[in-house]
Amino acid sequence: MSVAVANSTVPKDDVEVRYEDQEKINEFGKLNNRLLEIRAELKQSKTDIETLDDATTELAMVGKGKVMLLIGENFMEVTEEFAEEYCEKKTKKLQSRIEQLENEELSIVSRQDELKKILYGRFGDSINLEN
């Protein structure tokens, strides 16, 4: 004698974690760690740009002459013109880096959204993918 159960569903709590699911969970975790790193670097880069902008403003008030420029751990006496160019180059580099990081951040968030849909669809409330 055989018994068939129509429309039976396995509760989301009892869903088996397959290898593919574990791979997606691991990918989500790695992306989340990278996202935290990116956001920290973005914050620091924006702070550095503000500092460079402040320095450029200070240079404009100094007038022509020599100024002390901190490079690494050493101060160097340079012309105001050199210091301004140095600040401009550093600012452009940082702005470029910020743009790269923001693009990577968007890419990661997009992929995480895809993974959330898949994993929440499979596991429901038994998985937490929020910070």
Automatic annotation (TrEMBL):
One of its GO terms (cellular component) is cytoplasm. The keyword Chaperone applies. GO terms for biological process: protein folding. One of its GO terms (molecular function) is unfolded protein binding. Keywords: Chaperone. InterPro entries: PFD_beta-like, PFDN4, Prefoldin. It holds the Pfam family Prefoldin_2. The keyword Acetylation does not apply. Belongs to the prefoldin subunit beta family. Binds specifically to cytosolic chaperonin (c-CPN) and transfers target proteins to it. Binds to nascent polypeptide chain and promotes folding in an environment in which there are many competing pathways for nonnative proteins. Heterohexamer of two PFD-alpha type and four PFD-beta type subunits. PANTHER family: PREFOLDIN SUBUNIT 4. This is Prefoldin subunit 4.
